[in-house]
Each structure stands twice: as C-alpha cells, then as structure tokens.
Amino acid sequence: MLPSVEDAEGNVLAGRYQLVERAGEGGMADVWRAVTRGAAGFIRPVGVKRIKASLSHSPEFVQMFVEEARVGATLDHPNVVQLHDFGVDDWGSHYLVMEWVEGVDLGRWSKSFQDAGWHTPWHLTAAIGIEALRGLHAAHGRTDPWGKPAPAYHRDVTPGNVLIGLNGIVKLADFGLARAMDRAKITRPEMVKGKVAYLPPEMVDDSKTEPTPQSDLFSLGIVLWEILAGRRLFKQKTDLETLKSVMACEVPPLESTRPDLPAELTRTVHRALERDPQKRFRTAQQMARALARVLRRVAEPTDAEPLGESVALARERLKLPPRDLPPSQLVPLRRSRPGDLLGEGDDDLRESVEIPAFPSAKD
C-alpha cells in the first residue's frame, strides 16, 4: 500500500491541479480552492475534494468517494455544482475536481446580516430557496442512461451546502456525499458529526428508512427557518440532545420572531417542516412554486443581480476579499510522462498525440 500524503498549499495533482488554500473541512473529506493549470499560462479556478489522508486507502470510503463521483457526474443542472474530473494521484489517493463557486455559502451570507444586527432580507431568502429547490427537483428527477428513474437524494442539505456566487447563481454542493453519510452514520458516527440538526425525524426514527423528496424538503425547511429566524432550530449542546429535539419536531412559529414575514411565506416553510412526510410538499417543484407565489407580490427584484450584490456586500461585512485571489506563486509543472496529462513545455509530446476522428454517419 502506498503511504498517505497530507495535502499542502502548492501541491499539484495529476500535473495540472494546483492547490491554493483549504476551503472546507469535514469528517470524511477536505475541499480545496485550486486552479487548473494549462498551456500558455492558462489558469481556471476549480474546487478539489480529497478524502482525508487517514481514510484515503480504506476500501469502504474510497468506494463512497467513487459513488459520489458517479452520482455527481450525472447531475447536469445550473443549480447543482458541476463535476469536472475524477482521478488518482501519484500516491494512490483519489481526488474530485469540481466547479468553483466564487461567493459565500448561505450560512456565511446569513451571518453577515446577523453580525450587522439585521434580519436577512426575506425576499432574497425566498429567492435563494427557489433556486435550491430547482436543483433538488433536478436531482430527484434524475434518470439513468436508459431513461429509467434514478433519483438522487441529497440527505445533507445544510446552509454550508447552499452556495451563492458573486454572479447571483445559487448552487447545491455535496450531492454525492449523501449515500456515504447514510452508510457511515451507524459504524462511523464521527463522519456525520454536526449534521444531525438537519435530519428529518423519519430518518432518525429508523436508520433503515429510505430517503424521499420529502426528507430533502424537510432539511431545506430547517435551513430556511434558521436563515429567516436568525437562530438554530433543533441544534442543542450535544448530538444526542439534538436528535431528541429533531424527534420532538417542535417548530416555533416564524411570525413570533419575524412579524414582518408574509403569512404565505411562513406557511410554506412550516409545511416543509411537518413531522408527517405526507403533509409536506409532494415535490421540490411544488414547494418552489409556493415560494414563487409569495414573490409575485414583491416590488423589489429578486433575480441574479440583487443576489450577487448581496453576496458582494456580505463578503465585505465578513472582511473577505472582493474576489478569490489567484495563487501567490505558480508551482512549476512537472514534465509529462506517457499516460499523464500534458503540461507546460510538452509541445514535443503534444505533436505526437493523434486525435481520433468522429465516426461518420455512414459508419
């Protein structure tokens, strides 16, 4: 077995993906802001997800990571973070290359308002919810290559997995991690530490319960409730106490905290938070339409432009740079070997590569 190697800023994977900074850390994997390096100084921001070094050679977790790549590769939707590549580095550790969203996650967006002593703008929160629901609807309606239903359920809808770009586009992240977390929650509870506050009660009642669209909608309902109320809904001091709170499913009325909210908005959020899944919305699309009806009565714009402006202001309040800076130093890329991706200075190798022609219609 090859030794595990800890990632570090400046490391280059597969001769082209240079790690810039660690952007997120979870129980199973880390996410890095990185850049794709190419010929003639080509650079493009990407995200790179890596299984933690301590788990990188565990067949169980490698298979989970492979499954994440397979599921994510089939989710082609503007409100879902897109996957670009999946590979193995020189030490035998897998990596996942994905679209980089330059902006903030929903949790930090909300925090920027709270730190300033303000409520989150409810009309923008509803607009973000609609975009997230479009991503969920696409995943729930996923089909296999033969057109048969193959729904993908997120199972980990949290504020940190709802990303809002400076361009005002909302994207859901970490779809593929869902099944891995579901398998790990009994044998490796530390893998899902901190996630229990967003579980639906039916998933706590019975670990064998299969997810449904309603389970994802409940989790998104928690997220929307918390963003609007400015506080956690079920989170307690310990995971056990949090689970008991989820099971009790006592949801304080939003209007008691936010009397400025339209009644139809609070009804929509509370319907998503019904303890009985049958009383929730049937589909993500149905819930999105309910939120859209609320926004029809709003004079303020809620499209990508004001959302993007709110992200820029959030970054300023959070004392983040206006844009994600490129790496301070570009590491020299190694010369490619046969079978590697071509790097800088490999024109002699590039000339010898033959591009196969597409078959003609008569073929």
What does this structure look like?
With 363 residues, the chain is α+β, with helices and mostly antiparallel strands. It folds into two domains: 14-100, 2-Layer Sandwich (Phosphorylase Kinase, domain 1); 103-317, Transferase(Phosphotransferase) domain 1 (Transferase(Phosphotransferase), domain 1, Orthogonal Bundle). 36% of the residues lie in helices and 14% in strands. It has twelve helices and nine strands. The chain has helices at 59-73, 106-115, 122-140, 177-187, 201-205, 213-229, 239-248, 254-257, 263-272, 284-295, 304-317, 347-351, and strands spanning 12-13, 17-25, 29-37, 43-51, 83-88, 94-99, 103-105, 162-165, 170-172. The chain has a six-stranded antiparallel sheet, with helices on one face. A three-stranded antiparallel sheet has the order 7-8-9. A hairpin with a 3-residue loop joins strand 2 and strand 3 (29-37). The radius of gyration is 22 Å and the shape is globular.
What is the compact description of this entry?
The protein contains twelve helices and nine strands.
Count of extended strands: 9
Mean pLDDT: 85
- CATH architecture descriptor of the largest domain: Orthogonal Bundle
Order of strands, main sheet, comes to 1-2-3-4-6-5
Beta content comes to 5-15%
Radius of gyration: 22 Å
Topology pattern, helix = H, strand = E = EEEEHEEEHHEEHHHHHHHHH
What is the total domain count? Answer: 2
Roughly how much helix do the residues carry, as a percent range?
25-40%
Q: So how many helices?
A: 12
Structural class, please? alpha+beta
Low-confidence stretches: 180-194, 335-363
CATH topology of the largest domain: Transferase(Phosphotransferase), domain 1
